[in-house]
């Protein structure tokens, strides 16, 4: 195989109680990339559509992640990459992770799959480091594995795939303001109280248990964030209203997607996710904030080949 076209899913990281450790992949929101082998060594980004992003490989997360893979590979040629962006950078649904993941997954396929999923996550994390100064894995892990993933440990990296309850749908609203992950990290305090820690790990355990047992009520009760949300929600217009209205309209829970400004809600059944979308949109319509909105099933496979 000389060339491959891939779908790179958008992802929701943190999921309220799982800052830097939990994430999920969306089924019908994502970028497309075409990656082809080249006789010239290194990575050349030949085309980017949809967004104005750097073509230089070392300034683009796809290039940086791809170079991390090439460094560990015995392949002497290189790759050309086309990126067709649908996910806006700085939206909080893993725009950078989609490109990092798409590049390394596609290259691995073209090389005959020499690397494991865990190794691909490690290469893609180098792209995340370029985007936000932190090599976090909570977006790239679900983008590679699909479904929900838990980063149990960073040293050593240990990714636990978590089953996806069949009736779970996500609603994501993206108010059209940009928050850079690097900026929204700066406002975080580096210490937490024991009291909040206890609440947070109780909820994290509850959410994971709820996902394994398909207990939708437990999932809903556990989607609470006592640590990050109080600090970050002030950056997002109408956050408290969007959250309370989503829950009133049937969401199991609602919180900040990644580092924001997108807000996500999880619902049981598509009809509820649609009602939640309508209620979120009504709030931004009323105050005149432009937005994109997505309703999606959770993707059980992550990045994948498309024709
Ligand atoms: P998101 O959470 O949506 O990924 P981030 O703020 O983490 O947003 O990452 C976006 C940053 O990464 C921007 O500064 C953007 O210019 C940079 N970047 C570099 N290459 C890419 C790419 N291929 N796709 C998206 N963002 C990229």
Specify the overall morphology.
globular
CATH class of the largest domain: Alpha Beta
Helix fraction, binned, reads: 25-40%
The N- and C-terminal alpha carbons lie at a distance of 13 Å
**Unreliable segments of 5+ consecutive residues:** none
Determine the oligomeric state from the structure.
single chain
Number of strands: 11
- Into how many domains do the coordinates divide? 2
Tally of alpha and pi helices: 10
Using the CA coordinates, give the radius of gyration.
19 Å
CATH architecture of the largest domain: 2-Layer Sandwich
CATH topology category name of the largest domain: Ribosomal Protein S5, domain 2
Helix/strand-derived category reads alpha+beta
Q: What is the strand content?
A: 25-35%
Describe this entry's structure for a reader.
It is a single chain. With 307 residues, the chain is of the alpha+beta class. The chain has 2 domains: 3-163 and 300-305, Ribosomal Protein S5, domain 2, CATH 3.30.230; 168-297, GHMP kinase, C-terminal domain (Alpha-Beta Plaits, 2-Layer Sandwich). 37% of the residues lie in helices and 26% in strands. The protein contains 10 helices and 11 strands. It has helices spanning 61-71, 95-110, 117-132, 140-145, 181-186, 194-213, 216-222, 229-232, 239-248, 270-287; strands at 3-13, 22-38, 42-49, 78-84, 148-153, 158-162, 168-175, 253-256, 263-268, 291-297, 304-305. It is globular and about 55 Å long. The two termini are 13 Å apart. The structure holds adenosine-5'-diphosphate (ADP). Adenosine-5'-diphosphate binds at residues 53, 60-62, 83, 89-97, 99, 131-132, 180-181, 258-259.
């Amino acid at each position: 195989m000389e060339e491959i076209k891939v779908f790179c899913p958008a992802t929701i990281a943190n999921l309220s109680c799982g800052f830097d450790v939990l994430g999920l992949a969306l089924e019908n929101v994502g970028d497309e990339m075409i990656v082809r082998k080249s006789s010239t060594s290194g990575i050349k980004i030949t085309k980017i559509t949809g967004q104005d992003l750097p073509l230089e490989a070392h300034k683009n997360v796809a290039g940086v992640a791809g170079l991390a893979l090439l460094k560990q590979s015995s392949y002497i040629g290189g790759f050309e990459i086309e990126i067709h962006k649908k996910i806006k950078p700085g939206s909080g649904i893993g725009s950078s992770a989609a490109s990092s993941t798409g590049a390394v997954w596609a290259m691995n396929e073209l090389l005959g799959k020499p690397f494991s999923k865990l190794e691909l996550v490690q290469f893609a994390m180098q792209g995340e480091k370029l985007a936000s100064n932190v090599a976090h894995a909570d977006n790239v892990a679900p983008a590679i594995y699909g479904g929900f993933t838990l980063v149990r440990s960073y040293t050593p990296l240990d990714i636990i795939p978590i089953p996806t309850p069949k009736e779970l749908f996500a609603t994501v609203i993206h108010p059209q303001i940009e928050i850079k992950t690097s900026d929204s990290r700066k406002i975080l305090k580096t210490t937490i109280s024991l009291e909040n820690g206890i609440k947070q790990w109780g909820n994290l355990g509850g959410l994971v248990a709820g996902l394994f047992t398909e207990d939708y009520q437990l999932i809903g009760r556990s989607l609470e964030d006592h640590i990050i949300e109080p600090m970050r929600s002030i950056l997002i217009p109408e956050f408290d209203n969007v959250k309370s209205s989503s829950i009133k309209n049937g969401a199991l829970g609602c919180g900040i997607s990644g580092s924001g400004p997108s807000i996500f809600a999880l619902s049981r059944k598509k009809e509820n996710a649609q009602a939640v979308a309508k209620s979120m949109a009504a709030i931004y319509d009323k105050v005149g904030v432009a937005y994109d909105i997505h309703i999606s099933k959770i993707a059980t496979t992550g990045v994948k080949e498309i024709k």
